Amino acid sequence: MDENNTRKIKVEKHVWPDELEELRKKRRKQILTVALCIVFFLGGYLFNHVTSATPMINNNNGSLESESRKFNEIYEIMQNEWYFGKDEKDISEYLLDQSIFGLANYNEADPHTQYLNAEEAESLMTSLSGSLTGIGIQYYRQNDTILVDKVYKDSPAEKGGLIQGDIITKIDGVDITDVDIDKIKEMIMGEEGTKVRVEIKRGSEVKTVELTRATISITAYGYVRDGVGIIELSSFSDNTADEVAAYAKSFKEQNVKSIVLDLRNNGGGYVQTALDIAGIFMGSGKTVIYQEDKNGNLTSYESSNVEDEYTFDHYAILMNANTASASELLAAAFQEHLDATLVGTKSYGKGTVQQSIDFNDGSIFKFTVAEWLTPSKEKINKVGLKPDEEVNLPTALTFAPSADTTAYKVDSVGAGIQDAQIYLDFLGYDVDRQDGYYSQKTADVLKQFEKDNQLEISETINDDILTALNSACARKWHDEKATLDVQLLKAIEVVK
C-alpha cells in the first residue's frame, strides 16, 4: 500500500505533544486541558471494519470473538447514543482515531511507541526543521496565564526587550486570558516580515511592543565566557551541525582552548546530526553509537567525515534529567573518546530506536525497533548517564510544582503553600519553613513580596500569587544567571 511508507525518524527522547505537556507539568505549575479517552480500553485490538457485524478480532480458535463483539457494541453505542458525540464533526472518524490511540499509546513497557494524529505529526515535522517563523519565544500556560519561558538569541522578541518570566496578556489588542493555547500560537506565528503587537506584564509594569516576525534558528547558540567556548544545543535538527561548526570555527579564531556543550533539556534529534557534531570535534571513524536489534545483532554508527574538524584541549558536557536519547549518546561518546567531563545531574535514560509509518491523512504511527548503546556497549535506556561532577540548581528551578488551585489562608496546609515557600526562598525572602504549613511568618514574607512588586496586599495564597511568584523566579534566573547557574560555573572550572 502506498500509504505505508516506512522510514526512520529522529533519534530522540521523543518529546511528542503529549509527552511535552507532561514534561512541562513536571517542571512548572500549570493546568492542562486533556482530552481523555475513557472508553477505548478495547481499542487496543485491531479495528478493521468496525461498523460491520463481522468480528474485528479473529484467531483460529475464536477465543477473542466475545471481545470483538464487545468492542463493536461499545462502538455503536458511542456513535449513536453518546451525548457528547454531537460535538464532533465526524463521530466515526473521531472514534476510530481514539481507538488507534488506545492501541498504540500509553504502553507501560514502551512509552515511545505511539500514534500521532495529523496535527501532532505536523508539529513534530516543524520541530525537526530546527527553525520557525515567529517572534522567537517559548511559552507555557500556568492556569489562565501565558508565561514566557525562553527568548531565543537575536530574535525579534529579544530585540524588542522580552525576557524570561514576562507574562503575555494581549496579542494585537486581543486579551488572551481565555484563549486556547493553539489559537495563541496562530496569533503569534505568521509570515516573515509581518508585524505583531504583544502586550506583556512584568511585575507591576505593563507595556506593548511591536515585533516583526522572522525566521529563527532554535537549536544552537554559542558564546565565549572566561575564555571557554559554550555551545547550547536544544535539539539535533537539520541545520544544527552547521551552526556548531560555525561556532567552533569562531572559537578557534578567538584562541579558545576548551569547549562546554550544554545539552541540558535537549531531548535529542536526528542521529545523523549527532554523528556530524561528533565528527566536528573527534574526527571521522569513531564509534559513537551501537544499535542492537531484537535478535541481539549490533550495528555501529561512526562519527562523520565532515568538511572542517576542530580539536580543543578540554571538553565538558552539561546535562540534567531532561537530557535524553541522542544527546545522551553524544555525551557518552564525548566522555569515552575525548575524555569529556559530565557535569550536572543524571540524564533521562531514553535509549530506544523508533521507526514510523506515514498515512495519507497526515497521521503517523511510530514504533520501537531497536535499542541504542554507548561506544562501550552500555545501555542507557531507563538507566541514563551519571555525571562525573554532580551539581544541582536551586530547588525553585527544578522541582515539580503542584497543580494546586486552592485558595489558602494562614494556619492551613497545602501543596500550593509549599510551592510559594520554595519560590519565596529562591527570591531571597526569609521564609521559616518549606513544608506546606502556612505560618504567620510565611504570610509576613508574602506581604513583603507583594509590597516589593506593587501587588495587592493579601494573606491568600492562590493562583494569582503563585503565577506572580513563578514569574519573579524566572526573571531572577534571567537577570542573575551568570551567578546562579552553578552547573555552568562548574563546567567552566573543570575545563580551565
CATH topology descriptor of the largest domain: 2-enoyl-CoA Hydratase, Chain A, domain 1
Outline type: globular
Give the overall pLDDT as a whole number.
Answer: 83
Q: How is the biggest beta sheet arranged?
A: 6 strands, antiparallel
Radius of gyration: 25 Å
Number of strands: 22
Strand fraction = 15-25%
Query: What is the count of helical runs?
Result: 14
State the separation between the terminal residues, measured CA to CA: 58 Å
Task: Catalogue the unreliable spans.
Answer: 1-61
Quick one: CATH superfamily of the largest domain?
2-enoyl-CoA Hydratase, Chain A, domain 1
**CATH architecture identity of the largest domain:** Alpha-Beta Complex
Number of domains: 4
The percentage helix is 25-40%
CATH C-level name of the largest domain: Alpha Beta
Q: Structural class of the helix and strand makeup?
A: alpha+beta
List keywords for this structure.
496 residues, alpha+beta, Pdz3 Domain, 2-enoyl-CoA Hydratase, Chain A, domain 1, six-stranded antiparallel beta sheet, 14 helices, 23% strand, disordered N terminus, PGBD-like_sf, protease, Tail-specific_protease
Overall description:
By secondary structure, the chain is of the alpha+beta class. The chain folds into four domains: 5-126, no CATH class; 131-216, Roll (Pdz3 Domain); 219-392, 2-enoyl-CoA Hydratase, Chain A, domain 1 (Alpha-Beta Complex), CATH 3.90.226.10; 404-484, Muramoyl-pentapeptide Carboxypeptidase, domain 1. The protein is built from 14 helices and 22 strands. It has helices at 17-27, 65-80, 91-104, 118-128, 156-159, 181-188, 240-253, 271-282, 326-338, 395-398, 415-426, 440-452, 463-484, 486-495; strands at residues 5-8, 11-12, 114-116, 131-134, 137-142, 145-151, 167-171, 174-175, 195-202, 205-212, 214-217, 220-225, 228-233, 258-262, 268-269, 287-293, 298-302, 314-319, 341-344, 352-358, 364-373, 389-390. The strands form five sheets. Strands 1, 3, 16, 17, 20 and 21 form a six-stranded antiparallel β-sheet that branches. Strands 5, 6, 7, 8, 9 and 10 form a six-stranded antiparallel β-sheet that branches. It is globular. It starts with a strand and ends with a helix.
